[in-house]
């Protein structure tokens, strides 16, 4: 925006923007992103509907004003204008000679002689320069609360903004697995973000590629940033090429889309189908600039603690003022699940410290009077309090303080923080008591529902479902992990899409793939203008995975190149649906792969109301971190908060008998590991490690038996060779209830916390996790199908149970058919004999009389 007078405002300071349209005034809190004289760049964190309408009203009023000005202007008359110009020229010819011969008027006397003027200037200029150096201008913050909480307010303005440098790899920023382009019009989209806490001054694309078949000046890549053309890259022939391209920073937003579209020809590609250009996934988008020192403003939350523009896994330190009790841990787990929901597939970790602040941003759980809060200016009134303040150890770090007089206060603050309500403006708030509604089984927002056709585009944006030119679009969706997919051969996908820019004579096609397997293709009718269509594809259940799935839709031309005059585009509608009705919930447990990939069976109730985590005696920070990392992982999988999670110790099992359990601790710190040793696939009683296996006859109870005799011997050989491990994970039937599961997480060596992170982060994991036992050794997992008991989980009615039973025991179908045939034959024979008996009965007396 442009102001009337020149101002110099500190970056990150809070200002109050007052907008007046002549009828009403609207005040909007804002943050200074950049200040340069009369030009001020402001960031508006959150806008209400009323504020948005006021801004739109001002924008449109200026547009209407310009329209009215242009409408009120008189129409141009060329001849009349020429006559006016001629008359002005004649007037000038008459006035100029008169002015040359007129005597000049007397000048006003100068009040200061020349010497005194020079002396005054020589004195005033140094004084002004010295004043500017010693008395710099400061903009006053409009938020008085932030001045009260800022522990470094006296010298905050003297801190210069720190520089930053971020790199985004195209292999991570793109959704396509294959970074290659073939044919004119082929395109790829890459997505990256720019956080509001940073001002980008330089953006560079460092692009590596290979063009094995192209010749010089044959093809080029046209670049589009957020829908605006920014230039093109002429492709040079060769197996390893590199170029740099400057991106305009004024087009960058919080969520950016960089598109590549291939144009030109490839003479040598006509005889053999091959990619024209292959992009190196390690090519990067480099952003650099300055970081903004943000004010202590709770309305920004989850900023700056969560950066929505990131693409990789990240860490958020969590500080406890003192060793936490079970209620405090439940509140911390609730906050961790909230950040997990925000992170989704990226993954988040929570390094834990007790009584000490780390560098950067952190969340703090501490009671009033805790030593860790000493030096922070917090309100002294009792009750639950949420506050944001500067980190004493880091000028650009913020602390999110969760405090109160009792542990229950901390839990109340955690519930208020994670609720959907908007945080008020200010540096602190006294949080109200909020109740989070309970969720039912399979009510995870990120799982497809099976009771109705469900939209598979609900978890993405419209921008990610569009193509300019040809290319591929990926849709990711999660299924409930316990679906018995074999109950149906296929499920219908109703794909709704829009296409255009394909002139007559072209042959555009849509091809559908599921998890990399070809499903079907359809031809599209030529359409120069946008056309909306829908098509039903049958997805075979044999191609569906148990949890995460990728549906790929390819839009291309049959001869691999659109016509020269074509500008094709393609978009998928978000309300395209997948119908899973008729598929029952049924799975045999234990199966560690479902826990490691989806958090099942704990995530069956998304709010974790049927989950209890049993902590050891005197937990270590690493064991606290294990609890919080799991809570964040569960939230990321379901999209729901862990509002019903129970955290307790081994002495309070009476209250958690009907729950699925997670045991954390070693054999020395967790007494249940010794108490339940006989039920565990790998007993951890004392110094000995003993493998327990079920009897062979129990195989008859479950045709889908999740254990193998061979794996028991393999596990014994591993333990005999080296009993040291980084992490041991086991899954077995709960001794408290036969239809509940227990998962134990036993840390071993110093790298245990890295192994826990890899366990619940498939992208960071090395080696498979499945079965009843998984061992992490030297950073790699090895799994074993070992156990003593199993049970069937899910929800089945009688009809579904019969269907599952027949499919699992298909070998019984021929004997049952034969048995049923024998029964039918016997019944028919018996019925026939009875009918014959009735028919012959009247004849029997007559034959006796005749004799």
Annotation keywords:
about 850 residues, alpha+beta, seven-stranded mixed beta sheet, 15 helices, 42 strands, about 25% helix, about 30% strand, globular
What would you note in describing this structure?
By secondary structure, the protein is α+β, with helices and mostly antiparallel strands. 24% of the residues lie in helices and 30% in strands. The protein is built from 15 helices and 42 strands. The strands form 10 sheets. It has a 7-stranded mixed sheet, sandwiched between helices. Strands 4, 5, 7, 10, 12 and 13 form a 6-stranded antiparallel sheet that branches. A 6-stranded mixed sheet has the order 17-15-18-20-19-21. Helix 6 packs parallel to helix 7 (407-418), helix 6 crosses helix 9 (621-638) and helix 9 (621-638) runs parallel beside helix 12. The N and C termini lie far apart (127 Å). 37% of the residues are buried.
Summarize the biggest pleated sheet: 7 strands, mixed
Helix coverage percent: 10-25%
Q: How many runs of DSSP E, i.e. beta strands?
A: 42
Overall geometry comes to globular
The total of helices stands at 15
- Gap from first CA to last CA: 127 Å
**Helix vs. strand class:** alpha+beta
Which stretches of 5+ consecutive residues score pLDDT under 50? 60-73, 104-161
Mean pLDDT: 82
Strand content: 25-35%
Rg on CA atoms, Å: 36 Å
Strand order of the largest sheet: 34-33-35-39-38-40-41
Summarize the structure.
This protein is α+β, with helices and mostly antiparallel strands and 851 residues long. The protein is 24% helix and 30% strand.
């Amino acid at each position: 925006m442009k102001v009337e007078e020149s101002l110099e405002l500190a970056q990150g300071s809070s200002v109050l923007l007052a907008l007046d349209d002549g009828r009403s005034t609207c005040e909007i809190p804002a943050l200074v992103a950049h200040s340069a004289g009369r030009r001020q760049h402001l960031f508006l964190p959150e806008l209400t509907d009323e504020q948005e309408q006021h801004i739109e009203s001002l924008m449109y009023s200026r547009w209407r004003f310009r329209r009215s000005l242009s409408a009120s202007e008189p129409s141009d008359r060329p001849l009349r204008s020429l006559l006016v110009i001629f008359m002005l020229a004649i007037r000038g010819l008459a006035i100029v000679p008169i002015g040359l011969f007129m005597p000049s008027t007397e000048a006003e006397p100068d009040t200061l002689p020349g010497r005194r003027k020079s002396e005054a200037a020589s004195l005033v200029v140094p004084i002004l320069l010295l004043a500017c150096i010693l008395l710099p201008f400061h903009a006053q913050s409009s938020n008085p609360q932030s001045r009260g909480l800022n522990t470094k307010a006296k010298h905050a303005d003297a801190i210069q903004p720190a520089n930053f440098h971020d790199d985004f790899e195209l292999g991570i920023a793109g959704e396509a697995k294959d970074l290659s382009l073939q044919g004119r019009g082929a395109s790829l989209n890459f997505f990256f973000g720019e956080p509001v806490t940073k001002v980008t001054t330089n953006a560079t694309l460092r692009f590596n590629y290979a063009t094995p078949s192209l010749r010089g000046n044959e093809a080029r890549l046209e670049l589009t940033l957020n829908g605006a053309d920014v230039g093109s890259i002429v492709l040079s022939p060769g197996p390893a090429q590199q170029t740099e391209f400057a991106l305009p920073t004024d087009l960058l937003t919080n969520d950016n889309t960089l598109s590549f579209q291939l144009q030109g020809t490839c003479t040598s590609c006509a005889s053999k189908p091959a990619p024209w250009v292959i992009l190196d996934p390690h090519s990067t988008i480099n952003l650099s600039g300055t970081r903004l020192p943000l004010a202590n403003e709770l309305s920004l939350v989850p900023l700056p603690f969560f950066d929505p523009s990131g693409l990789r896994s990240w860490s958020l330190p969590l500080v406890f003022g003192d060793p936490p009790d079970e209620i405090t841990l439940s509140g911390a787990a609730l906050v961790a699940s909230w950040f997990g929901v925000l992170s989704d597939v990226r993954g988040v970790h929570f390094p834990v410290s007790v009584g000490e602040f780390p560098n950067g941003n952190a969340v703090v759980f501490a009671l009033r009077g805790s030593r860790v809060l000493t030096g922070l200016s917090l309100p002294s009134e009792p009750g639950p309090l949420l506050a944001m303040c500067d980190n004493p150890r880091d000028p650009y770090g913020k602390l999110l303080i969760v405090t109160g007089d009792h542990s229950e206060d901390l839990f109340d603050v955690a519930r208020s923080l994670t609720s959907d309500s908007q945080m008020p403006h200010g540096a602190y708030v006294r949080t109200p008591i909020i109740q989070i509604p309970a969720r039912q089984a399979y009510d995870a927002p990120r799982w497809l529902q099976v009771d109705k056709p469900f939209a598979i585009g609900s978890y993405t944006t419209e921008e990610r479902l569009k193509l300019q030119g040809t290319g591929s679009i990926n849709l990711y969706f999660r299924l409930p992990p316990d679906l018995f997919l074999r109950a149906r051969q296929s499920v219908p996908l109703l794909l709704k899409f829009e296409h255009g820019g394909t002139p007559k004579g072209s042959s555009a096609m849509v091809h559908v793939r599921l998890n990399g397997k070809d499903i079907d293709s359809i031809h599209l009718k030529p359409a120069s203008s946008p056309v909306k269509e829908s098509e039903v594809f049958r997805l075979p259940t044999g191609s569906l995975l148990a949890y995460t799935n990728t549906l790929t839709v390819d839009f291309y031309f049959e001869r691999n190149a659109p016509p020269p005059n074509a500008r094709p585009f393609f978009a998928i509608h978000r309300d395209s649906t997948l119908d899973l009705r008729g598929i029952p919930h049924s799975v045999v447990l234990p199966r560690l792969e479902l826990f490691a990939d989806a958090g099942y069976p704990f995530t069956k109730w998304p709010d974790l109301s049927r989950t209890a985590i049993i902590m050891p005696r005197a937990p270590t920070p690493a064991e606290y971190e294990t609890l919080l990392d799991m809570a964040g992982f569960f939230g990321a999988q379901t999209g729901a908060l862990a509002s019903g999670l129970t955290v307790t110790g081994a002495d309070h099992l009476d209250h958690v008998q009907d729950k699925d359990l997670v045991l954390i601790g070693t054999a020395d710190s967790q007494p249940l590991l010794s108490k339940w040793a006989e039920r565990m696939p790998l007993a951890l009683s004392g110094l000995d490690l003993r493998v327990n296996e079920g009897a062979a006859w129990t195989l008859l109870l479950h045709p889908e038996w999740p254990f193998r005799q061979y794996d028991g011997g393999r596990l014994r050989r591993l333990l005999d060779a080296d009993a040291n491990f980084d992490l041991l994970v086991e899954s077995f039937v709960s001794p408290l209830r036969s239809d509940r599961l227990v998962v134990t997480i036993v840390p071993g060596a110093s790298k245990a916390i890295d192994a826990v992170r890899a366990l619940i982060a498939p992208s960071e994991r090395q080696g498979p996790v499945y079965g009843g036992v998984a061992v992490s050794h030297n950073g790699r997992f090895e799994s074993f199908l070992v156990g003593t008991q199993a049970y069937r989980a899910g929800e089945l009615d009688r009809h579904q149970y019969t269907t599952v039973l027949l499919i699992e025991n298909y070998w019984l179908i021929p004997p049952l058919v034969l048995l049923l045939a024998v029964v039918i034959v016997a019944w028919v024979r018996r019925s026939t004999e009875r009918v014959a008996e009735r028919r012959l009965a009247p004849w029997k007396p007559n034959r006796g009389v005749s004799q």
